[in-house]
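Please go through the protein record below and see whether the fold suits the sequence. Record follows.
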Amino acid sequence: MRGSRTLAAVLSSTLLAALSIAPASAQQAPAPAVVVAPAAIMDLRESADFTGKVVAIQKVGVRARVSGFLEKVNFKEGDKVPAGALLYEVEDGAYRAAVQEIEGSIGAAEATRELAVLERDRAQRLISSNTVAQATVDTANAQVKKAEADILRLQGSKQNAELNLSYTKIVAPFEGVAGLSSVDVGALVGPDSDALVTLTRLDPIYVEFPVSTALFLEYRQRALRGEIGRDANVELLLPDGTTYPNKGTINFVSSDVSAGTDTITVRAEFENPDYLLLDGTLVRVTLEQTDKQEVLAVPQQAIQRDQQGAFVMVVGAGSKVELRRVDVQRSTRGQAVIAKGLKEGEQVITDGVGKVRPGMTVDAAPAAGG
């Protein structure tokens, strides 16, 4: 009996000790650690993204304009060639001979004209003494005119022959990059042949992209109301994920709508000195307002949503957490633009929001770089 009382006393003292320690342990539990960032005024200009295609300003297949065997190829495939550069040479012997033949005919025609002029002048002198009839003078005048007409015709033939001779030198019509040559020395080429080489001008260069008519009309209406500027910066994201270093300018907006896609075509021009943009490449196009737009914004990760809409967790006085409903106007560059619900400088939780509830006290640390 006495042993039972002793055991009960030991258990009672142990239980009391445990109960006295438990509240102290609960009071010493650390506050949840969170990361916060301030709601800040920043320049977040409105932007829109589109899928665009790089289009060369000039791209032609260079063809032969006269027939003949190819004698020389004067360029390297893939090289940049200046305007007027000699690309191919076609054998020109027959064309030179044609020019010489016509020059000879012109010489003979000029001699005939001189003789006709002499005959005409003689007849005009003789008619005054009634030695020859008027018909003889008329015939002499006609012979002079015929000789002059023959010379004019032959001069036209000579110009045509000289033009054909010049076509034996096939030159670059503009500065560009030469593609693969479809022919080699010795090939028979002519007007009916396929393109000998494709020449592409890459600097400057165009980027075309479709814009939905709804978005275009909204932009026009806002611009007319003065809510946004009419000009925009044009930036490109390349297929490898890098940003193209040069900004472009819009130089064309289509006046008709594509029936199949309900879009209009917009075109921007870019300087391309290093040929980073190649004809046919698909790129990401970003249009951004040129005018500053100072707005209140918080990091995008601070925005939470439930059935009632968007909210953020604000750390206020005494490090206590408050749930705050906000109106998010738009999101861009990792920031959410806040139209209503926050003031500049208020601290919102960006990391650790899942660990807290409204009214809790937290251990808040600023975000890196904040």
About this structure: The chain has four domains: 33-41+294-366, 47-56+200-289, 60-87+172-198, 93-166. The first helix runs from residue 2 to 27. The chain is about 30% helix and 35% strand.
